[in-house]
Amino acid sequence: MDTERLVHEHKDLVYHVLWRMVRDREAHGDLFQEIFLNILRGLPDFRGEAKLSTWIYGVAVRTCLLHLRRIKNEPLTSLDERQERGAPEPSDAAALASSADLQSEVDRERALERALGGLPMKYKLPLTLFYLEGRSYREIAEILSVPLGTVKTHIYRGLREMRRKLGGELHDHL
Q: In this structure, which topology does domain 97-168 adopt according to CATH?
């Protein structure tokens, strides 16, 4: 696979990782290039045991984690910031019957985003990958290069911590 095709076929995946993990939008261009350089450097070592997109996702996540460690673990992008930039909200407003329902949904999402944003990265990433990205436990283990049992433990503990932070407020949604 040539470089141009590789970038074209996986650029949306990489941008999505950047959008979820790195708040500093000015850093995205450099990080995008760094991620693809890491992909190209690591491609000869890709064994094909996982899907190429899963492997690329893992490279993107690890590159973002290194960046975040360099700048002291900046939290994931919040719902409020996405709304300020005019980015689409995760809720489906058309499906809500009234503005009261919309406000309730937005409030719930903000509370969840705050609780998720306050978690340590070791819980935040698996929860994000599982619940927001729809990744399987096995894919998460491959992406994060950790054992399957660690993924399950971190998701369980992350959910427990979110429930504790939220109190009874959103217990039915977790």
A: Arc Repressor Mutant, subunit A (1.10.10)
